[in-house]
């Protein structure tokens, strides 16, 4: 394992300190916690938005803390949901009476920890609502199982809910637009290499020199299908077609596109994928309102990418365009 | 059976030893069908439990179990943290003010713990989670009227091993669908360590 | 070699198309060239700024094209300087009579190709000036050799020269402030892994599991010293001390910090490095005016980072803070 | 010696063959002390040269050399593109309107080419660049009064090999300082291919 760290056990702590050191005027770390909050939290008369999850997905989640996006991000250990007490600290720090929305990615661990935090907050009289992002179409949607994972599409939920809250909307309104975003966002990823959790020291799976994995998550979990590596165009088509089909996108509709790098893939390759995604959508008469290419939701140093499409209407477009001062999503 | 504070302290020591020794193994099980952190999470959490409970004095098992629960809740994270945290919390509540635990009390506490786990995780037996170990054990406990260390350990082991052939329906492994078959459930293995430690404690205390 | 590409020979072309597809309202590709220019180029009464170099450094250089930064970026093949005819096209596309500044990184190939382009432009009556960025302190500065390389510090030169030009300054003024930036910016990099040029298919060098390379360039060139891998803190100290010493930074001075990822390093590790860089500078009484952590000048999928410090005065601070709409440097 | 358009076309064909065959080797030399693109650059450029010159008719060597030059300039990139481009441009200019080249003209063209390279690259002999091959050859050419194919090839080869022991002072390899010693200079090797091809052309034309 080759990593620029001091100690696997201090990696998350060191990262959080280094993050605050980079943006000292914009964010603060709540003392003794793994919570990064807006420096000016709690903001008066504004619904607070709290997200978070395991670490190793940088710039998620702290990178999305800022005016127009999240009020706080709670970091767990690498790929491990943060604990209820930490999430509770985040909620308390951002609530100013208008209530708090929790944006949770659909993983059993995240849901249980955030739910327990919500129970603690409600016990203190804080009004808390939750939305659960489950944009990953790799996993079949079945009510018998855990359902779908939340991956890169979560960033759009942060953005849109954050913009709505910044407008002064009520907790119910912010929750409603977050739900609407979740209804209209889908993603799928693929990987060329696994990644190494610092404290584990070994890769989570092995891929041969000619293999790739489709439907990968963002925690070094194996994907749903392993096959021979193919061209960027074929990869782009496979991912995008799956997302289009699941969203039921039709000619004439408008979308935002995100081509997200998983951590170890050069930007050059993301743009090569974007070329084909763009072509495919244009060929189908689907209008691309805006495109985001880069690293938004990573899986440590995994080489690979995901494609996310968000179906837009006028409300979502306006909220997507609204100002954001989050370090990883400046608008 | 009769479990007092010293027994529970001993139980945690033994469980921690097993988990620390098998940290890498638990993690490798989770790498196969999860995200590779279960051993790390459990080792961190139980280390903290030992730190916490060895620095305090307890006059009854309920307070001790509560501290165990709170430490697991705030130090493990992931799916296993809330589940184990909830289990020990429910045990603590079931044993309110008891300074020791007899067999019916123990069965009752296990029953409450299992219910807590199932409510929190929304999982049923057979879905390849630690519920498979806890529920199988509870069924066996209910069939008897005193603790049988050997049988308890064997039952836990068999239940743990039985998860290998199951397809996961809950937790991270569920994303793999049929590819989850053929691998042990990491949480069931850590539960097995916890219960085999309890079996050892009872065996030695007889 | 595992890459998400179609064909090594079309990688740069595909990338440029994918880039324009991502920012169609902001940039254009000059037909038949590898030049990305501002959509509204040439801008009336404004000095044009052209940079460029080999590909594989994304987001450099096209990511820095935009209002407040570059007017055009010329892309060569991977790690290969663009040819004079392409640079010449870039110059022609951005000149509107106010002249054009070329920002060149100090590599023999870049200098020769850009110089020949400048000769072609001058022959057509375009007023062209050049600056050469040589911020890499890994290489000893000697007049007998090629001198120092240009690496991540180049991004600050783009930003500051671009801001000056946006203010309507003359070509001489823009050149002067670019020179001033070059005088005050220094960098050094390190790597944990090599990278693979797509058309070559094999890594440029090998590093053992316990080795790192200090003083690495951004072209997969071996560095100046190979040694045993150490902690993030020790790496941060070694890099930062070299830069501080070379700049002769003293207590009370102000700097901008860039902790740059080389392509394959997770952001988590960059923030861990930033923590120590920040601490070290603070301990020395050097004030950190602003910090930039992320991928700014990469070397394909190389794992590693570089540390850049820019000594600031009031003029440079104002220009650094000025608005920029470049996709990879929004201010 | 007498080189006409057909000879130069043949020269380029042979040079291109050698470069394509040794593309990976040239690249590996550049990986050792540079950035690993020299073979790729030269192979791309010479392939384009062949495409260009085989699609046109030439009435004199000067026009042909000009097209070679322009193609190299616009297709090779890196350091070698401007250098080889300049070299062939200077040859073209030195041989203005000639439809064939005799020995004194050839030596003159080589002299102009070398001067162009040195001016562009600001390099001197002994700095571990292709100048080492070009200047050594020119010195040898000046000592004689006709072209000696065998000696020409041998001199080019020795000059190329001599770069191995040098410490680079110019180009990318200079960043490595003493670590550049012990490796051949890639540009000198590609120059050797170009000149050994010329030697073959002259040998066959006698
Ligand atoms: N819904 C659930 N109900 C009961 N147990 C579960 C559930 N989801 C996961 N588990 C248990 O948790 C274990 C995984 O724990 P861990 O790896 O620490 O958390 P995570 O899956 O969040 O990374 C699984 O092996 C399984 O036994
Ligand atoms: N200043 C210079 N003068 C003469 N030749 C040079 C100079 N710099 C580099 N070269 C030659 O160019 C070769 C490298 O070419 P190439 O790899 O194509 O370009 P780059 O170094 O830009 O990647 C070197 O091996 C050397 O022979
Ligand atoms: Mg986990
Ligand atoms: Mg896990
Ligand atoms: Mg090169
Ligand atoms: Mg080279």
Automatic annotation (TrEMBL), chains B, D:
- Signal peptide (from-to): none
The protein's name? Dihydroxyacetone kinase subunit DhaL
Q: What is its EC number?
A: 2.7.1.121
Pfam families given for it? Dak2
Q: Where is the DhaL domain?
A: 6-200
Q: What class of enzyme is it?
A: transferase
- Which InterPro entries does the record associate with it? DhaK_L_YcgS (IPR012737), DhaL_dom (IPR004007), DhaL_dom_sf (IPR036117), Dihydroxyacetone_Kinase (IPR050861)
SUPFAM superfamilies from the entry?
A: DhaL-like
Instruction: Give the Gene Ontology MF terms in alphabetical order.
Output: phosphoenolpyruvate-glycerone phosphotransferase activity
Does this entry carry the keyword Transferase? Answer: yes
Kinase among the record's keywords? yes
What is the top-level taxon of the source organism?
Bacteria
Q: Which UniProt keywords apply?
A: Kinase, Transferase
Which organism encodes this protein? Answer: Oceanobacillus luteolus
By which gene is this protein encoded?
A: dhaL
